[in-house]
Design goal:
single chain, 2 domains
Length: 316
């Protein structure tokens, strides 16, 4: 039987080649899409995974670390007064415009803190002294910026939001969800560069919990004291968990809306002399495939967001 199958396939070699090419292309497409999706997920969650914070205080309904919204920086004092909080600091994540020597303008995503090293930012390796950021109009720029902005060296100057800043450090390996190059600068400087939105404001509060203290109880107390903010644990705020939960919810709802009618029409099909066989193993297989397709389909949203110029979104 095997020989007959092979002979039948090879009898029409053109059709056989087309079939093999179609299967190969389908496998290539699936592997490429899933691999690219996982890469985007890694970019989306890398910030949360590397920053040494147990809790993140955000504005209401913030969808992603890169797409932040401002709220009063004074709220950090309420967080610091919560029992069980070892330390809490404001963090600004914002998009700014950088003028290049070529005369063109690009966007850069900036992370701004008063003390970077205590929170493990930036991650990876870097050149320069992070503490110097507090001493003037300085910034650290990630090496990945060279691909989009052109080569740069320590000591070079760049205009950011029409202010002349000196590059005093270089990081390596810092990635953002939108693939926009990253820069690091002092908290007060970030407020000044975008004074219309950030004067007196922050975009996040990083919280480190004291050893032995229950994180959910501390988070609950912060939510009580800051009713107009969201509070996430590291795992809750990681983009992978968020996206997986969204895909699972969509898959389950869609599966239910499709499976229930299929089960309900079985008697009507039987009255017509036909059988609608829906075995539990087959139903489970369809459910698994539905979840997988929902995750893969979310790649489309990632592509749309990654293709947007953040400067257009945040320009005021």
């Amino acid at each position: 039987m095997v020989d007959l199958a092979l002979k039948t396939l090879l009898h029409d070699r053109t059709r056989f080649a087309i079939t093999i090419a179609g299967v190969a292309f389908a496998v290539l497409l699936v592997l490429f899409q899933v691999g690219l999706f996982l890469g985007l997920l890694d970019n989306a969650s890398v910030t949360v995974e590397h920053i040494d914070a147990d809790l993140w205080v955000t504005s209401k309904n913030t969808p992603n670390v890169d797409f932040s919204h401002a709220f009063p920086e004074s709220r950090v004092d309420r967080v610091r007064s919560v029992p069980g909080v070892a330390r809490a600091d404001n963090l600004i994540v914002s998009f700014l415009n950088i003028d290049l020597p070529s005369g063109s303008q690009e966007s850069v995503i900036t992370y701004a803190l008063e003390d970077f090293e205590r929170w493990g930012i930036p991650w990876g390796s870097w050149e320069g002294n992070l503490s110097d950021l507090r001493r003037g109009d300085y910034l650290f720029l990630d090496q990945s910026a060279a691909k989009r902005f052109g080569p740069f060296a320590l000591g070079d100057y760049r205009e950011v939001n029409r202010e002349r800043l000196r590059i005093i450090g270089r990081t390596c390996g810092a990635k953002s969800f939108t693939t926009t190059p990253m820069a690091f600068l002092d908290f007060r400087l970030a407020q000044r560069l975008n004074a219309q939105t950030l004067r007196g404001n922050t975009t996040y509060i990083l919280v480190k919990i004291a050893p032995g203290v229950d994180a959910p109880s501390v988070a609950a107390e912060i939510r009580r004291r800051l009713p107009f903010n969201d509070v996430h644990t590291r795992s809750e705020w990681a983009a992978y968990a968020i996206l997986t939960r969204q895909a699972a919810v969509s898959a389950l709802i869609g599966y239910a809306l499709g499976a229930i009618p299929a089960l309900l029409i079985r008697p009507a099909v039987a009255r017509g002399g036909l059988q609608l066989i829906l075995q539990p193993s087959f139903m489970a297989l369809v459910l698994g495939g539905t979840v997988a397709f929902c995750i893969a389909a979310s790649l489309l949203s990632f592509n749309k967001v990654a293709g947007i110029d953040p400067g257009l979104v945040f320009r005021t």
